[in-house]
Amino acid sequence: MSFKTVQEAPARLNRSELAVPGSSEKMLPKAAASAADVVFLDLEDAVAPDDKPQARKNIVQALNELDFGDKTVSVRVNGLDTPYLYRDVIEVLENAGDRLDLIMIPKVGTAADVYAVDMLVTQVEQAMGRKKRVGFELIIETALGMQNIHEIAAASPRNESLHFGVADYAASTKARTTAIGGPNPYYGVLTDTPEDGGARDYHWGDMWHYAIARMVVAARANGLRPIDGPFGDFSDAEGFRAQANRASVLGCEGKWAIHPSQIPLANEINAPSDTDVEQARAILEAMAQAQKEGKGAVTLNGKLIDFASIRQAEQLVEKADMIAK
Ligand code: GLV
Ligand code: MG
Q1: Is the model's pTM score more than 0.90?
Q2: Which of 18, 105, 168 to mutate to test the pocket of ligand 1 (most atoms within 8 A of CB)?
Q3: What are the phi and psi torsion angles at 127 (to 5°)?
Q4: Is the pLDDT score of 196 beyond 80?
Q5: Which of 32, 82, 111, 316 has its CA 20 to 30 A from that of 55?
């Protein structure tokens, strides 16, 4: 390990993160009763400009009156380039009580964006005598944000997670797609192997690989949770599974649900399977035995395991224990 220690964000389950428009009085109670680990009440892109004042009121009422159980509750405010952000922060934070856990900041472009919102939030917290410090979720969804992601991730002790906002990111980078997440058939590789007599095969690639992998590195290097964003076609459970699995394999801790049907999928995919947990426990036992015998590496089921295997296995068991609580 480096001499620099990484401060981990407060531990929270974040397998699924349900988006719910603050303008929908009908959906707010459903979100509170859902099986999502985190719910974000939206004031940004799911709410029309004229509806923002009423959406703020709905959200304040929901935070004061609904039972969100042991969920983490977040509010997505509007961006720093809009005339809404300051009112979002002030109205929600002044009136929401202590149930609010996080504020989600969209379209973060520079570390100074986070600094500016931190200053505003800090002033309201101090003025209101709030005891519970609000954390930040940051959506990386512009070319500027992706360029500055490492400074952004380190910009405030309030930071808890980075989110990949694939729809706005596609717009910002002028990617050739109109879908929200998922692959594009034109992003592929044509292979022709001389040994096959030049027979050609076409393999789809994952056009979001770089963005998600970069976000995972920036998040983990700063002790934050990397979270994959929306998958728009909620009637395509298989497509959701494939995308969520890719993100999870790369190190993401969870994925957004833009429809309730995506919550159980995200919860399942972002939890270690029973087989994974059994294997991790077996690794820990084998390595404990190896250490007693003064060995640094041993073989388990025909595979080499060593001290790095202990760290991988501990992560997995820790996650499983958190879910079981
Ligand atoms: C989320 O905000 C997105 O733009 O995908
Ligand atoms: Mg967006």
Answers
A1: yes
A2: 168
A3: -65, -35
A4: no
A5: 111
